[in-house]
Amino acid sequence: MKRSQLFIISLVALGLSGCDQSSKAFSLPPGDMAQGEQVFMDMQCLSCHILDGYERPEGEWELSVALGGKGKSLKTYGELVTSVINPSHKLAKGHDMSSIQVDGKSVMPVYNDVMTVSELVDLVTFLESKYELEPYDPTIYNLHH
Ligand code: HEC
């Protein structure tokens, strides 16, 4: 067999295995929704966020960034995860910029040093249930270039 034929066969094989893109998309393992709700309460996310069905703690809150629902700034699972572990990556749309960021950095705390991966998994499972997100749309690389 010529090398060029081998090359074509391997391209086809790659193309076929690429059919199941969902297995390549980034996603955390399934978590526990009730535990996630607990993390959400314990970490006091409600001090800056509003979420349907959850009462905010006593006090005066300067921030009321809405979470959940459809058609808000978050569209995909990937964006949801990113907004928790890297809040400044993309700032939520539709807010007064002066209240949600300082020097381009989100005022949302970074929890990465205090939140375990299991807590993150549970939290994201909980949050995901509050959104209508589009399925993850993985990048498909064009093998012919
Ligand atoms: C000190 C205030 C503050 C706290 C506490 C806070 N956040 Fe945020 N959060 C923000 C602000 C401000 C934004 C909007 C700017 C941005 O996108 O980072 C935001 C954005 C988000 C977004 C993206 C919303 C969107 O529509 O793009 C998610 C999801 C989120 N926070 C989840 C959480 C969770 C979960 C917690 C608790 C673990 C939490 N936040 C705690 C201030 C906070």
From TrEMBL:
InterPro entries, alphabetized: Cyt_c-like_dom (IPR009056), Cyt_c-like_dom_sf (IPR036909)
Keyword Repressor found: no
Keywords: Heme, Iron, Metal-binding
Identification of the protein by name: Cytochrome c domain-containing protein
Organism placement in taxonomy: Bacteria, Pseudomonadati, Pseudomonadota, Gammaproteobacteria, Aeromonadales
Top-rank lineage group of the source organism: Bacteria
Cytochrome c domain sequence ranges: 31-131
Record flagged with keyword Disulfide bond: no
